[in-house]
Design brief:
The chain is an alpha+beta fold. It has ten helices and twelve strands. The chain has helices spanning 7-35, 94-98, 106-135, 152-156, 175-182, 239-265, 277-289, 292-310, 318-331, 337-365, and strands at residues 40-55, 61-75, 137-139, 144-147, 163-167, 170-171, 189-196, 199-206, 208-213, 219-224, 227-229, 233-235. The strands form five sheets. It has a four-stranded antiparallel β-sheet. It folds into two domains: 105-135 and 238-371, no CATH class; 137-235, Pdz3 Domain, CATH 2.30.42.10.
Length: 371
């Protein structure tokens, strides 16, 4: 087992991870806003007091701020970086108002908001595609080569040489897909279709629950069937296939995240599995200590996580803005100013409460606190 990295390494990993990912998220908003003619008053790398900056010919203040944890873009007509409309917009001239975010058609505002999470997804796809192009893809057919001790699959009747065709009706072509269908579902009952010789048979089995520990001692409960795969081979791929695989990998990671949150909400998993900034910093430092490939791969997972979180329909998040735009499209008029203010206040309270909760989770999980 490896020793946990130093606090300095964790802080460095945290800044190197979240800083660029959040800046890229905001740059996505900025680029699409510019495409539609929205002026940006400020683009900040970091939060808080400005350290250095300059104003470009379009009037955008590009600045580096004191707290290097991400950044923000503030469009013309916004009261603050959260996108709350400024009451002073009514006093603007027609030409000035034309460059504000609020003056744009609904579909353009929606695309500007959506651009942030989409950028995070594109970053993850690009990382996965680069790894696929550099290292190739793993080719391991879903054939049973052996069993671990106490294997749930062996107890249910699987045999060496069986080829897994489908799990719960979903086709399986690679052994990695078997793990994806199993790892998030400990104790679930599944139906496995296998080809044995010339026959196909369906075998019901219950996925075993197992507490897995990594090299740093981090642990989590996963599902296992107790099958070793046949020896995989690495196959080189071209650019287009590398991107296609990257898209598929990103979608699968996103599906796993949605499944995990649904299981926590449904009571299948403990809320203790939710992690906050301290746990992200801990994992960032650990991955950074393993080298840049591991750290960059972890960055892809966090980038997808940022996209998912920002798409939640909570006011102050991108998904909350999109929910208000959906209401506007249905009502054929904007949601009232007072209703928007209450929505943003409620959303801010929810986000702060969630941050406090996950931070508390992080603290009690530390060994210092007996976790």
């Amino acid at each position: 087992m490896l020793h946990s990295p130093s606090v300095l390494t964790m802080l460095l990993g945290f800044v190197l991870l979240l800083g660029p990912l959040v800046v890229l998220h905001e740059f996505g908003h900025y680029l699409v806003g510019r495409l539609f003619g929205v002026r940006a008053d400020a683009f900040s790398v970091g939060f808080g007091k400005e350290l250095i900056g300059r104003t470009d010919r379009r009037g955008t203040r590009w600045k580096l701020s004191a707290l290097p944890l991400g950044g923000y873009v503030q469009f013309a007509g916004d009261m603050n970086a959260a996108g709350v409309p400024d009451a002073a917009n009514a006093a603007m001239s027609e030409a000035e108002r034309a460059g504000t975010f609020q003056s744009k058609p609904l579909w353009q505002r929606a695309l500007i908001v959506l651009a942030g999470p989409v950028t995070n997804l594109l970053v993850a796809i690009a990382i996965f595609a680069a790894f696929n192009l550099a290292y190739g893809k793993v080719d391991a057919p879903p054939v049973v080569a052996g069993f671990s001790q106490g294997s749930a699959a062996q107890a249910a009747g699987l045999r060496v040489g069986d080829r897994i065709v489908a799990i719960d009706g979903d086709e399986v072509a690679q052994f990695a897909q078997v793990r994806e269908k199993v790892v998030a579902y400990p104790d679930h009952l599944i139906r496995v279709l296998v080809r044995r010789g010339d026959a196909q048979i369906t075998i019901p089995m219950r996925i075993a629950g197992f507490v897995e520990k990594d090299q740093f001692g981090n642990q989590g409960r996963i599902g296992l069937l107790g099958i070793a795969a046949v020896r995989p081979r690495i196959v080189a791929v071209g650019p287009l296939e590398a991107v296609a695989i990257g898209v598929d990998q990103s979608v699968r990671v996103l599906h796993m995240m949605v499944t995990g949150i649904a299981q926590i909400v449904g009571g299948e998993r403990s809320v203790k599995e939710l992690g906050g900034p301290i746990k992200i910093a801990q994992y960032s430092g650990q991955q950074l200590s393993l080298g840049m490939p591991a750290f960059i791969s972890f960055a892809a997972l966090i980038s997808i996580n940022l996209a998912f979180i920002n798409l939640l329909p909570i006011p102050t998040l991108d998904g909350g803005h999109l929910a208000l735009y959906a209401a506007e499209a249905i009502r054929r008029k904007p949601v009232g100013q007072r209703s928007q203010e209450w929505a943003f206040r409620t959303g801010l309270a929810l986000v702060l409460a969630l941050m406090l909760f996950v931070t508390f989770n992080d603290l009690v999980s530390l060994r210092l606190f007996g976790g």
